[in-house]
Design goal:
Length: about 280
């Protein structure tokens, strides 16, 4: 019964949404009221057939799809919560959590000889450990968004980090995919929406990945970090989810027993940097 009610609600919202209110141009005479199924599907990132089956009560949408539909239809908070309830989910809060709890910070402390940092779900760096600072992989943050990994990657790349073309493409696809998922889960976060809008306006590669997201199955990547003394260290990056705070931890390691592992150890020991440093700012901009 709830799925049929959800389908009825989605159809009513679609048919009563002014196309211009969601950014669609209107030319000539429209033969249908509100949005066409194809238009809602394009805005929400699903197929028109999926929308049809959903409106018929024949599809159980994921929480991400519910959020995508709510954002595409630009519904008020109360209507969003109603859609979530009909689909059997709790509505997300309006903003991406941006505070690291004691457990998350302790994780960084215990990776004392391994470069690691914490980001929120929108890729804003929240805290780094001393081993990360020891790498000195690029210029300090100057632009307001320079503590955001997606911004750094698509708009203001760090000169001290390099990847092969294939690995760079995979890293960009992963960043965009996870940022897209975050935008679906937090449709009310204005700062996040502003970051996405600016990246889409100013970075064609990001806009392409946003419009046609790639399937991402791996969340690890390899990069070469150039230390200011001119030596290179090749590290593998792994992404760990910190569910309690909805954060991500990026951990960089070298192959055991390799020359890169030995060089990383030298760099970290020589730096003597603080254990954990909180960085960045509140929000992506």
């Amino acid at each position: 019964m709830a799925l049929h009610e959800l389908g009825t609600a989605v159809r009513w919202l679609r048919e009563n949404t002014d196309p211009t209110a969601v950014g669609l141009p209107v030319t000539g005479t429209r033969r249908v009221r509100g949005l066409r199924r194809e238009e809602l599907a394009e805005l929400a990132g699903v197929s028109a057939d999926y929308v049809r089956r959903l409106e018929q009560g024949r599809r159980q949408p994921s929480a991400g799809v519910v959020n995508a539909l709510a954002r595409a239809l630009d519904v008020p908070r109360a209507e969003y919560e109603r859609l979530c309830a009909l689909a059997g989910y709790a509505a997300d809060s309006g903003d991406v959590p941006r505070q690291a709890g004691a457990a998350a910070l302790r994780l960084l402390e215990r990776f004392d000889d391994t470069p690691a940092f914490l980001t929120d779900a929108a890729w804003n760096v929240i805290a780094v450990n001393g081993a990360w600072l020891a790498l000195q992989a690029g210029a300090p943050a100057q632009h307001a968004r320079d503590w955001n990994v997606a911004w750094r990657t698509f708009r203001n790349a760090l000169g001290g980090i390099s990847r092969t073309d294939d690995r760079a493409a995979g890293f960009r696809a992963m960043l965009a995919a996870r940022l897209r998922d975050t935008a679906l889960r937090y449709p009310g976060d204005e700062a996040l929406a502003g970051l996405v809008d600016e990246l889409r306006r100013t970075s064609r590669p990001f806009d392409t990945l946003w419009r046609w997201p790639e399937t991402v199955t791996a969340h690890e990547n390899r990069a070469v970090f150039r230390h200011p003394d001119g030596t290179d260290v090749t590290l593998d990056g792994n992404l760990l989810h910190v569910p309690g705070d909805d954060l991500m931890a990026v951990v960089l390691t070298a192959a055991p027993g390799s020359a890169d592992a030995a060089r990383l150890g030298e760099v970290v020991r020589a730096a003597g940097a603080p254990v954990v440093v909180k960085v960045g700012q509140a929000g992506p901009g």
